[in-house]
Specification:
The protein is built from two helices and six strands. The longest helix is centred in the N-terminal third of the chain and has 22 residues. It starts with a helix and ends with a strand. The protein has one domain: Immunoglobulin-like, CATH 2.60.40. The strands form two sheets. A four-stranded antiparallel β-sheet has the order 1-2-5-4. The protein is α+β, with helices and mostly antiparallel strands and about 150 residues long.
């Protein structure tokens, strides 16, 4: 015959086993996760040390037939290989795009992450320019992933 003490010990033992089983069944393991997201990045600077960000080129006072040049430094700040291209938008006045020729000497070489390339941008004013005293435009430099 089982005494009350033995019964209480038995119940306590069963409760302990159930609690232990519950703890074991709900044991949590943390798994760390890491990864990288493909990112294209591009920064443009005035200096080869990449400390002075280029946000505007002031071409100054130009005459018909003049050519002016500015050197900029493009840095691949992303984590994929890229090449560069550009387009010109927002001409003011619109007719300025007829008389101003913008070119650069970038030859299409691939830029690996953190590579820096020196690019000379040249602006040539047509000798026959007329009706344009002041001008502005936006040069959009684009980084395109190389796969």
């Amino acid at each position: 015959m089982v005494t009350k003490t033995e019964a209480a010990l038995g119940v306590a033992l069963i409760a302990t086993i159930i609690i232990a089983a519950t703890v074991i069944l709900t044991l949590n393991r943390s798994i760390s996760n890491v990864g990288r997201i493909r990112a294209i990045g591009l920064d443009i600077f005035r200096d080869s040390n990449c400390t002075d960000v280029l946000t505007q080129i002031d071409w100054g006072l130009l005459s018909p037939g003049d050519t002016a040049a500015v050197t900029m430094y493009a840095r691949n700040s992303g984590n994929v290989n890229v090449t560069l291209n550009y387009n010109l938008t927002d001409w003011s006045p619109v007719s300025a795009s007829t008389y101003l020729i913008v070119a650069w000497n970038y030859s299409g070489q691939m830029l690996k992450p953190f590579d820096v390339v020196s690019i000379q941008v040249t602006l040539t004013v047509s000798p026959s320019i007329s009706g344009v005293e002041n001008f502005s435009y936006t040069m959009n430099v684009n980084a395109v992933e190389v796969k």
